Amino acid sequence: MTTTPTVELPAIAFLGAGSMARAILAGLLAPHVAVEGGIRATNRSAERAAEFDDEPRVRAFATETDAAANRTAVDGAKLVVVAVKPAMVPGLLDEIADALEPGAVVVSVAAGVTVATFEAHLPEQVSVVRTMPNTPAVVGRAVTGVSAGTRSSEADLALVVSLFETVGEVLVVPESQLDALSTISGSGPAYVFLLIEELTKAAVAKGFTTEQARTMVEGTFRGASELLAVSDDDPAELRRRVTSPKGTTERAVAVLQDAGLADLFARATDAALARARELAAGA
């Protein structure tokens, strides 16, 4: 039986504890993760902050009852994860700038907000790392893109990689590629869910109950993904093995290919990239 190596991280503050932040938090609360100095989290509402009352490893603060909550949370934190809505980021950074520890690493999970924006609002002795996780972080299966800022060291980057490895896999890329990454792994779960949704509808149209259709479709997607994960072969080879010459699958795949599936995915991801650039420009 293999033992999961212990991951040791310094004190961490989450500013904004919405769904993505809480998914990352769940990874940090795994038994093999040790956070020296503890975890702090802020929410706007006291009700949301109170949801951490039964978790002794997290100190939660509410900005509606404590105007200094964000500044209190970052005091002594080596890692500060900014997980508020993008429009709120500049104001939040100005609020905490002089409360951050020298050498702290500020980690962005705010879509579309550039490293330059973060660095412009923070002291020079604070580094920035921009990230793009996706929703499977909730089940420890995230793919997170990580990009270094101009002031971050290799040690800073490695620390952030260790943080996100608690909820899945990590790709280190230049910031210039982060928006493109978001169109694949960031938006990707939605593409998969859409395919599942449509294939389920097709099954129901063929006379299966919704429950039967879900069993077939969701089980097939899960099984195919797990088969790919344990196989040394690429998806094209695995597809060929399912596609017998002149058989039913070959006929179905031909219809999908004739519909321009490759071009459709290219246009879809191009559209997502264009929107990401609009968001970055404040449009």
UniProtKB/TrEMBL annotation:
Q: Where are the transmembrane segments?
A: none
Report whether Magnesium shows up as a keyword of the record: no
Pyrroline-5-carboxylate reductase catalytic N-terminal domain mapped to chain residues: 12-112
> Which Pfam families is this protein grouped with?
F420_oxidored (PF03807), P5CR_dimer (PF14748)
Chief location bin: cytoplasm
List the EC numbers from the record.
1.5.1.2
Metabolic or biological pathway, per its Swiss-Prot or TrEMBL entry: Amino-acid biosynthesis; L-proline biosynthesis; L-proline from L-glutamate 5-semialdehyde: step 1/1
Sorted alphabetically, which keywords does the UniProt record give?
A: Amino-acid biosynthesis, Cytoplasm, NADP, Oxidoreductase, Proline biosynthesis
Q: Where is the Pyrroline-5-carboxylate reductase dimerisation domain?
A: 175-279
Q: Where in the cell is it found?
A: Cytoplasm
- Oxidoreductase among keywords: yes
Q: Which reaction does it catalyse?
A: L-proline + NAD(+) = (S)-1-pyrroline-5-carboxylate + NADH + 2 H(+); L-proline + NADP(+) = (S)-1-pyrroline-5-carboxylate + NADPH + 2 H(+)
Q: Which NCBIfam families does the entry mention?
A: proC (TIGR00112)
Protein family: Belongs to the pyrroline-5-carboxylate reductase family.
As for what it does, the entry says: Catalyzes the reduction of 1-pyrroline-5-carboxylate (PCA) to L-proline.
Q: Which PANTHER family match?
A: PYRROLINE-5-CARBOXYLATE REDUCTASE, PYRROLINE-5-CARBOXYLATE REDUCTASE 3
Q: Write down what this protein is called.
A: Pyrroline-5-carboxylate reductase
Give the organism the record lists.
Agromyces marinus
* Gene giving rise to this polypeptide: proC
